[in-house]
Design brief:
The chain has about 600 residues and is an alpha/beta fold. It has 21 helices and 19 strands.
């Protein structure tokens, strides 16, 4: 039996890191037979981003994808990435939801559960680990890796021991930013082996250029499993090439026993598939050594780039990368992985745009007050005080966050059925993404999106770019926008699927808008996003500092407060996209 086994990431993390998780199931099917006969230890194919992209962008049922993959991979276990008590979402779920989700994931095809928590808080992992053990599948518990004054190899080794005591079958060192250096990896694995004594899997991104050397030293230190991806979907913000690792160890005691010629056939297939998704390609394709300081994961880097562009601040990327390190420290040296990478990254953007902690997201406040779990180190006490006041909390939460959540499956099942769910799997889809699932249920019968549409749209954009024509996406639909000499716009749908839709008109003002008294104080949107909800009723009397509306921006929630006392009149309805500096309400 080979001493080193490979877990390939082409069906999940590779396309998540490189092409915004857009690869369709149809583009995976032809490769399944080739992948299944290679002899991989497992194939990672399911996780929060793939699940989200299926229902949000591809009109695919993620459970059907899993069943299809399992049918095409009878000899190779399918791995999923599970965020502990968060499962696939951005919040903690009740224990009954955790139990049901893990049970159904196993029944539909998952063979390896890789379970992690952004805080590395064992309390957030125990329930998911227990549920996974009951299914009889392989339970791999992951340690979110960060390099801070707090994180030492001794602390990581103690975590590995704790997870082994939970019944983990293996341990994963999850290095989402490519920060794990070769010789540090060697020492870390030796320390973990001494305390845990179970197989170790190394997951490291290629973002900083360290990954191949790190995998080499990891194998020498005793790691049994290495995460790679087929070469045509490797490097940049992705991972080390499988063929490179196979060849590197060939003829040595670490020989994987895998056939490079067969791997090259898979690489050729995905090389052609990748071309269809050119419009989604990350601009970070080489080694970005700024990440050695900012510690930003690969997917987060391209996401930040897009978010700053949305806010009209793309020139601020270097300032944000520097600010991230400070926010991470203030948040107790939290590792940067979903959801904490998004929380810290968005807070850093707001700090750069508005001043340090002048605006704190709801999620940042929850993070530093224990609502996501115990932080690795003590957070900034001034930030904690500010967060407690903003979210009206009495104290920092010191118990397991999920202890305060009562069983919720029955309640969610009732809501899901009303939204169009037809199975337990649908209910769990709704539980993970309640804002997106209803629209998916409504449109599921139309069938999946074809990647050929992506390729056609990209070609259209390139053809029209020089003629002053652009493609603008509005609420998921693409529209051609032609800029005329006089500056007016001619708008037409960009795709056949949108051809029957009229050009989007400006949203109507709310009924209250006409009744706004002259001389009132306007409440302005500080950032672009979506007006998530009104926090008070139309016409309600509010005091200075009361929350008026909540904006969702960059996947985080931001409370917008009254700047004067008086009666509030809303100018924008809930659910509408807003631009920075747009008037949301008026008080007067």
């Amino acid at each position: 039996m080979a001493k080193i086994k490979l877990n390939d990431l082409v069906l999940r993390d590779a396309h998540q890191s490189l092409i915004a998780t857009r690869m369709t199931t149809a583009d995976m099917l032809e490769a399944l037979g080739m992948l299944d006969k290679i002899g991989y230890w497992s194939l990672e194919a399911w996780g929060g981003a793939t699940f989200d992209a299926c229902i949000r962008f591809l009109n695919e049922d993620p459970w059907e994808r899993l069943r299809t993959l399992k049918k095409g991979l009878p000899n190779t276990p399918i791995m999923m990435l599970l965020r502990g008590q968060n499962l696939l979402g951005y919040r903690h779920y009740a224990d009954d939801i955790v139990d049901k989700f893990v049970e159904k994931a196993a029944a539909n095809g998952i063979g390896v559960f890789r379970i992690f928590d952004a805080c590395n808080d064992p309390r957030n992992l125990k329930r998911a680990a227990d549920a996974a053990k009951k299914t009889g599948k392989h339970v791999q518990m992951a340690i979110s890796y960060a390099t801070t004054p707090y994180h030492t190899k001794e602390i990581y080794a103690d975590l590995a021991k704790k997870y082994a005591e939970f019944g983990a079958d293996s341990i994963c060192v999850k290095d989402m930013s490519g920060l794990l250096k070769p010789y540090e990896a060697y020492d870390l694995i030796k320390a973990m082996k001494a305390k845990a004594g179970i197989p170790i899997d190394i997951h490291t991104h290629a973002t900083t250029g360290l990954s191949v050397a790190t995998l080499l030293k990891s194998a020498e230190a005793g790691a049994e499993i290495l995460d790679t991806t087929i070469s045509s979907m490797s490097m940049g913000t992705s991972h080390s090439p499988a063929e490179t690792i196979v060849e590197m160890f060939k003829g040595t005691e670490y020989d994987t026993g895998l056939d490079t010629k067969e791997l090259l056939k898979i690489a050729a297939y995905f090389r052609e598939v990748r071309k269809k998704y050119a419009k989604f390609e990350s601009s970070f394709l080489g080694a970005d050594t700024r990440i050695l300081v900012s510690q930003v994961p690969g997917g987060m880097l391209s996401n930040l780039e897009g978010q700053l562009k949305e806010q009209g601040a793309q020139d601020k990327i270097d300032d944000v990368l520097k600010e991230i390190a400070l926010v991470q420290k203030d948040c107790g040296y939290i590792p940067l992985v979903t959801p904490t990478s998004q929380i810290v990254g968005t807070q850093a953007v707001f700090n750069v745009l508005f001043g340090r902690y002048a605006k704190i997201t709801t999620e940042t406040a929850d993070l530093v007050t224990g609502r996501y779990g115990a932080l690795p180190a003590s957070p900034n006490p001034d930030l904690v005080k500010q967060a407690l006041a903003q979210n009206k909390y009495d104290a920092v939460l010191t118990t397991r966050p999920a202890d305060s959540i009562t069983n919720e499956f029955e309640k969610i099942e009732s809501e899901a059925k009303a939204a169009g769910a037809g199975s337990i799997e649908d209910t769990l889809t709704y539980a993970m993404f309640p804002k997106v699932a209803p629209n998916f249920f409504k449109n599921r019968a139309k069938g999946p999106v074809s990647s050929n549409e992506f390729a056609a749209a990209a070609k259209t954009a390139s053809k029209t770019e020089d003629s002053g024509a652009y493609i603008v996406n509005v609420n998921g639909a693409d529209y051609h926008v032609q800029v005329r000499p006089e500056g007016s716009l001619a708008i037409a749908p960009a795709s056949a699927s949108a051809s029957a839709a009229p050009a989007p008109a400006p949203a109507p003002a709310s009924p209250a808008a006409a009744a706004v008294p002259a001389g009132g104080v306007e409440i302005i949107a500080p950032v672009a996003g979506t007006l998530l909800k009104h926090s008070v009723e139309e016409g309600a009397s509010v005091a200075l500092g009361d929350t008026i509306v909540i904006i969702e921006s960059m996947k985080m929630e931001l409370e917008i407060k009254a700047t004067a006392p008086g009666k509030v009149h809303f100018l924008v309805p809930a659910g509408q996209a807003v631009q920075a500096q747009q008037a949301l309400a008026q008080i007067g």
